[in-house]
Specification:
Layout lengths: L9 H4 L2 H5 L12 E2 L11 H13 L11 H11 L5 E6 L2 H12 L5 E6 L3 H9 L3 E6 L8 H11 L3 E5 L11 H10 L3 E5 L20 E6 L11 E6 H7 L10 H12 L1 H23 L4 E3 L6 E6 L2 H10 L2 E2 L1 E2 L10 E5 L3 H20 L2
Helix pairs in contact: 3-10, 4-10, 5-6, 7-8, 11-13, 12-13
């Protein structure tokens, strides 16, 4: 006889935080001009692709990866110019590192503090790990509200603070002095998330030696390796040796290690692509600013946030014209009628601007 055990239902078994979550939605981008996910739009030079092909063919994928990924870490150390005594922890993307940090500090009642609007995974991972989440609103210009941050730190005593530098989805670099005040006031760890560093140039890595509660996180996703899944956390040994205990032993696969090492040997290619993207960001920003009904926010990242009337209709109009960007409208009240576009190739950017102008025109006629 078969019967259902009432305990074996998701509603009964799962934590209420999990039941309350909405899955991170990734829309299909096949056959679209894909400007929604801050990817680098460029392929690698043919010679480098061939080299990677040969390396991958010879890779020992029947073996587990080198758990310590020593060679890759040394390469990162050298290229990033990390100060003496600073160590590196590797993650399967920086998302995994956010999760690992939260798991490490998630004592009952512990708080993760971020700003709003910012990268949504900080809030989601706080929920995954049962932490309290506090999101301090940014000012109207998306700057840090330093007084509100210091008050919130005083009041909530967060174990973990995340600040994206530049911030996603707003694209700006927060005031560095305000961040320093936050690091100095925080009773716990402050993680400066430099996912978009390649397009901004500014960094907190030189300050790692000054503040023992500061950690800096970066990803290779925006630099042309989103498909490999590789991010890193840089910080003092006292923290990293503890955090290493939580890292799953083989979180960075054989092919990721191999290909990332090869690409980092050719870092100049990646940096040149990033430089091109920065250059095209200026063009794209100028065109957005010059588009009627659009208010664009200045960006130090590889994407631009902009406000447009009837954003839902404009977003759909873009999709109908084969261009996928990100609709931020529902993400936060400060983002009402905001869309975010990733800087693509010059051709993609032109196509996007044309499609945007047509969509805006159409959205007015649809009323
Ligand atoms: N931090 C920020 C600020 C991001 O915007 C993203 C990706 N959108 C990430 C971290 C995660 O990147 P990944 O997991 O690809 O390294």
């Amino acid at each position: 006889m078969s019967y259902t055990r009432i305990t074996a239902t998701p509603e009964y078994l799962l934590r209420k935080e999990v039941l309350a979550l909405h899955a991170y939605h990734v829309p299909p981008g096949t056959d679209m001009v894909k400007l929604d996910a801050m990817e680098n739009p460029y392929a690698l030079p043919p010679q480098l692709r061939d080299e990677i092909g040969r390396l991958s063919a010879d890779a020992a994928i029947n073996r587990y990866p080198d758990s310590g990924a020593q060679r890759l870490k040394e390469k990162i150390h050298q290229l990033t110019g990390l100060p003496q005594g600073v160590n590196v922890l590797l993650g399967n993307g920086s998302d995994e590192i956010i999760q690992l940090l939260a798991m490490a500090v998630a004592k009952p009642g512990a708080t993760l503090l971020g700003v709003e609007p910012s990268f949504v995974m900080y809030r989601m991972i706080a929920a995954f790990t049962g932490m309290n989440y506090v999101g301090v609103p940014l000012t109207e210009n998306f700057e840090l509200d330093c007084t509100a941050m210091l008050d919130a730190i005083q009041h909530h005593q967060p174990a973990l603070v995340f600040l994206a530098y530049p911030n996603n989805p707003t694209g700006n670099l927060f005031d560095a002095e305000a961040i320093e005040q936050i690091i100095a006031a925080a009773p716990g760890l402050v993680v400066v998330d430099e996912a978009y560093h390649a397009f901004a140039g500014a960094s907190f890595i030189p300050l790692l030696g000054r503040y023992s509660n500061l950690l800096v996180m970066r990803t290779f996703s925006k630099l042309g390796m989103a498909g490999l899944r590789l991010g890193f956390l840089a910080g003092g040994m006292a923290w990293l040796e503890q955090l290493e205990k939580l890292r799953l032993p083989y979180n960075v696969g054989v092919l990721t290690q191999l290909v990332a090492e090869k690409l980092l040997q050719h870092n100049d290619v990646l940096l040149q692509q990033a430089e091109q993207i920065r250059h095209d960001r200026t063009w794209l920003y100028g065109r957005l600013v010059g588009t009627v009904d659009v208010r664009a926010y200045p960006s130090e990242a590889n994407f631009i946030l902009f406000h447009v009337a009837h954003s839902a209709r404009v977003f759909e109009g873009l999709k109908q014209r084969g261009v996928l960007i990100k609709n931020m409208n529902a993400a936060h009240t400060a983002l009402t009628d905001c869309l975010r576009v990733t800087v693509g190739t010059p051709d993609e950017n032109e196509l996007f601007i044309r499609a945007l102008q047509e969509s805006i025109h159409q959205s007015k006629n649809d009323i």
